[in-house]
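Reopening: structure tokens for the hexanoyl-coenzyme A complex, inputs below.
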Amino acid sequence: MTNQERVQNLKERRVKMLKGGGEDRIKAQHEKGKLSARERIDKILDEGSFVEHQSYVTVRATTFGMDKKRFMGDGVVTGSGKIGGKQVFLSSQDFTVLGGSLGEMHALRIAEAQELALKNGTPFIGINDSGGARIQEGTLSLDGYAKIFRNNTFASGVIPQLSVILGPCAGGAVYSPGITDFVFMVDGTSHMYITGPAVIETVTSEIISHEDLGGASAHCSKSGVAHFRFSTEKECFSFVGKLLSYLPSNNMEQPPIADTGDPADRENPDLFSILPDEERKTYDIKDIIAEVFDRGSFLEVHADFARNIVVGFAKLNGRTVGIFANQPNYYAAALDIDSSDKAARFLRFCDSFNVPIISLVDVPGFLPGIAQEHGGIIRHGAKVLYAIAEATVPKISLILRKAYGGAYIAMSSKALGYDRTIAWPTAQVAVMGAEGAANIIFRRDIKGADNPEEKRVEKIEEFKETVMNPFIAAGFGYIDEIIDPKYTRIELIRSLEMNMRKREDRPAKKHGNIPL
Ligand code: HXC
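Re-run output (same inputs, fresh job):
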């Protein structure tokens, strides 16, 4: 072969490689409203930034005719590139090649990209579109998954890991996304489950569609497995870039500081028009967030799951912060099993990646009920306490109204580790609400009174004035400052800036044993 012929041969191989499983299969992919693996990479990365790795890798297994099913790249495209100028490593499974199924060499490519991301300290993005373990390759395929899970675990807390589900993700394949930090899904396209509808029908006689069982809606609102839901792949990709713009590339870096153009001395004169005078009335905590943090910067995580707690990233004077807020207009904000899991996982992400935590508190406590007790609210609620106590990032708490019981401890207590707790004059800090408290500690007074109902109301008021008011807690030093709400933004920025150099150690240990 002449040198020129060798170059021609290379070109032909490349053309073939770019076609994955062939034009017909790419067309079928498009007909399902899905992009091909390479088109997805082009859409997610900055133009022209993709550098492919191991593109000639092909199958080694010979079992069940695999030696006759050799595709360059083995059903996955991996490499590195930039998103908004930030270096990332990524993999994109190619459904047109053997249904994107994961065999030995396919897994090796993903694992190599993960390892390069870890060595270079960059985020890793896994785009999933696969029939799962490649049946013909048996244990080669299973051990391939094992390597990926191990890499996911080693990278956890070191680099941000995002999983974008854009097709089937079934069986054990779900556990790589399950270990990663954030899972993205698209309506009608993404399906995640351990066992699909057919197996479920055989085993339990339950009948359910792929979408209802494992679609974006199911996982973003019911199971909590996924964090972000979109209607199109395009929207999903642009949000990946937005999320990354709030995060550092790894745990040794600080999150980027943005110029949001929102003045640090902006007052918030309208906050009391959001918080109703009547205690029993609810309001939307997101209206408070929108007013206080840098305009338009709130990026909610897990928006449709466990809506009694709101978590997400925002900018405060250009700095990324993690917000952990009660939502009074959903279950009166009471903390339950799902909201505890949601909060604890988010808080631990923030702590891993140097994102300061700000809690906004208006919570009556943990949700009472047999289902909650037997579902393990003790075990789940404990995660929030653990996550806050172990976090070494700056932790600031703002009490708006109710801060009762264990929920006060989790969300505001300086003894648990908050660096600064501030309160509005409307704050109520107590072991429990005034009515419950009066019925216990003034029971005899109320029972023995000429007019028990009048006495009860009198005692409730007395309790509110003497025990719950924030000046009592401030007098003990548990609240640092009680502020006019119009200075909320200014005060939160000051609290954040004063704690940004914080250094705190923890006792040396192999790792803690967070209640799971
Ligand atoms: C090998 C596979 C495959 C797999 C699909 N294909 N899944 N090949 N191993 N796991 C092949 C098909 O044979 C077909 O090849 C091509 O990919 C496209 O698949 P279709 O079935 O035609 O596509 P579609 O109708 O869109 O259905 C997609 C699907 C279905 C829902 C994903 O293929 C399916 O149910 N596959 C099996 C899913 C599964 O049970 N996987 C194992 C999970 S257990 P041809 O050449 O005919 O077009 C698991 C264990 C991991 O993953 C454990 C890790 C710890």
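The chain has a mean pLDDT of 95. The radius of gyration is 27 Å. Marking as resolved unless the reporter disagrees.
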